[in-house]
Amino acid sequence: MLRMKPYKYPILIGYIQRETELIRGTIADILIRSGRLDDVMVNPQRFLEQTTRAIRKTLNDIMVDGIKYERIAGAEYEMFLFEDPRHEIQGYISRMLGSEKIHL
Questions:
Q1: pLDDT score of 12
Q2: Which of 10, 48, 69, 72 could pair with 77 as two cysteines, CB 3.0-4.6 Å apart?
Q3: Where are the domains of the chain?
Q4: Residue 91: closest CA among 72, 75, 104, 77
Q5: CB 90 within 8 A of CB 76
Q6: How many other CB atoms are found less than 10 A from the CB of residue 51?
Q7: 73-74-76 Cα angle (round to 5)
Q8: Cβ–Cβ < 8 Å for 13, 31
């Protein structure tokens, strides 16, 4: 009978951290809540690849939520990433006052 050595979870977390730039605590929470941690024993490399891919997809989906669509008269919707709340406020004030540039 083969006896398996306990798998070192910090190695898993370190790999995923390098690939996703998330902090270790977040990664540990994701792995525990997934309920799939035992799958690492079946095929560790595949587990890491699929886990990293799933986390990246979720991160990308979250980033898409930061995209704002603005209707331009007689045109298609313009799409831009809203990174800094000051830019939206500055744009709103500029349109309201009719000036090109306002510094906040």
A1: 86
A2: 69
A3: 9-64, 67-97
A4: 104
A5: no
A6: 23
A7: 95
A8: yes
Give the pLDDT confidence of 34-93 residue by residue, as tens digits. Answer: 888 889 889 989 999 999 999 999 888 877 666 666 666 766 655 565 566 565 566 656
Ramachandran angles phi, psi of 42, nearest 5°:
-75, -50
Q: What is the pTM of this model?
A: 0.55
Q: Is the backbone of residue 35 left (phi > 0), alpha (psi -120 to 50) or beta? A: left
Q: Give the 3-state DSSP-derived string for 72-87, with helices as H, strands as E and coil as C.
A: CCCCCEEEEECCCHHH
Cα–Cα dist 101/41, whole Å? 58
Residue type, 44: P
Sign for the CA dihedral angle at 46, 64, 87, 100 comes to positive
- The token pair that represents 61 in the structure block: 């989906």
